[in-house]
Amino acid sequence: MPLESYKPISLLAMRLLSGTFTLSLHLPSLFMRYIYLSALFATFVCFYTTSAYAQSSPASKTPVLVEPESEQDINALSKAVVQIRTPNSTGSGSMVVYQGRLMVFTNRHVTEGHDSVEIAILKDVHEPAVPTFRGELRVFSAEYDLAVYEVNEDIEGRTVTAEQLDTSDNPWEYQLPQLEFIDADEVLSRGTPLALLGYPGLAGDELVYTAGIVSSVQMTDFNQKRMVAWYRTNAEMSPGNSGGIALTNDGRVIGIPTMVAMEERTGGRLGSILSIPLAFAVMQSDDLLTSWDDYYNPDDHLNPEGEPTYGQHTLAGSQLNLPLTAGGSRSASYLGELCTGYAAENPDAILTLSEVTERLTIEFNASESTKDATMVVRAPDNRWHCNDDREAGNLNPGLYLEQAQPGDYQVWVGGYQPSDFFSGNVTAYSAGVDTTTAEASGGFNLNGDPLYGTHQLSAFFLPDPQTIEVVAGGNVDISETIDGSGCTGFAAGNPDVRMHFSGSTAGLKAYFVADNPTEDATIVINTPDGSWHCNDDAHGSTLNPMLDLGTSGEGRYDIWIGSYRQGNYISGKLHFTEMSVEVP
């Protein structure tokens, strides 16, 4: 789209200060000139990452992806990114000088509900960001994850102006660097290198960068103009990055990395970057809001303040299995690109964490495999997380929140179509429990990572049987762990295998065959309804165990393979089948 096709942002001028803020900047000049910026970046986390990050190191204006030429260029570029702080979260943002006014751009979810935020700046690129300025809300977009704050004073109440930050000779010893934007009509191709700058929570208050490529491009028609809506990338994103910048390898800003989609089975991740041309086009639209009250209380939105229909539940070292009815008439699409479907007004449930956990897992499995469910979760920091299908070929949603903070997680389970109501089960548990302690105490650790992986099966799977190699045995006494069950043997503290099953079947079976037929193994399974099942010998002519799960239903199965004698470890194969079988 030609730069000349942009029009003056007169609407924004009216909205920003309700008549007191005069803004005559034209978008062509915004894209044609260098302007002061410090960045926009957002995460949905969904999903969230456990990858390590390193602080920015000297490089050229093409900072991460080419041979360094100048330390000064990357250092100046790093100083463009500011950290935004609210009472309960941190993120990243960008400071732009519009006609002598300092405005900070960020993602709506970073500052949601806050009229005032604290701005921390990078005075030294090798030191953490320092709280320096204060920003006041001016406008935000409900449909696009975008918010704008104005900076008029520092945290001590002293007036700050754009002119003062034009050079480093000011009370804050801080100078805004200049950045260049990608052309409005330019479309980056797949494989184009890019870099991200922001303040992920894993790195504290340090600025870090990650590198990757453009994985795909999504176009859109906005106000009758064809432009890039989203760039997808494999570059790592992490909680707290929200608000940073995405750059080409020649240092031009391409957009606002906004959210991450994660696939649980493979651990695959794909980040989404809101293109900068679309972000500025949104600033000309009619849907900008100036008050959080206009955003929180419309009649057709979800109500975070409502009483949960299925109660409040504390997650404390055990798995929650909560039957409920999904669906409703309130659309979740206003929350962002990954938020779809229709849910009830009030939360279906509130899940409470008492301490930080490495990963919070929340999944829903519909009773009927043909039902298409969606999930929305509002975290304690007021950020929204959404999922439709947790993996390819599975219509059930799941959210996996890494480094989940203590507090209340409000959960909505919706249907893809309005007023489509159906039953199902929410499964939730927190990871990070000390598995050594769990095993020493004589109990199974439902929160533990499975020793031989997490697997997915759907009804009528092929090939049949499905086989997983396992070494059976451990130090947990099964007879003491599952009281009154008659189960015997010894197994590991963590599950050997975790299996998610979808669809309807009349004859799902799990059995173990030892490599040495003289070895005596046992099998224990915790089914989606939370009940325990075990077996020692499948029949009188074998020492191998089998459980016929029949119609136990969809959901998560945690499976332990034990040995009859403590300290005896048995190699063999765990099988899943829907056919009649004679266990050898």
Automatic annotation (TrEMBL):
<protein>
    <recommendedName>
        <fullName>Serine protease</fullName>
    </recommendedName>
</protein>
<dbReference type="Pfam" id="PF13365">
    <property type="entry name" value="Trypsin_2"/>
</dbReference>
<dbReference type="InterPro" id="IPR009003">
    <property type="entry name" value="Peptidase_S1_PA"/>
</dbReference>
